[in-house]
Amino acid sequence: MPIGIIGTLVIATVLYVGVAIVLTGMVSYTKLNVPDPVAFAMNMVHQNWTAGIISLGACGNVYYDGDDDL
Question: What is the residue-wise DSSP string for 18-63?
Answer without folding.
Answer: HHHHHHHHHS-GGG--SS-HHHHHHHHTT-HHHHHHHHHHHHHHHH
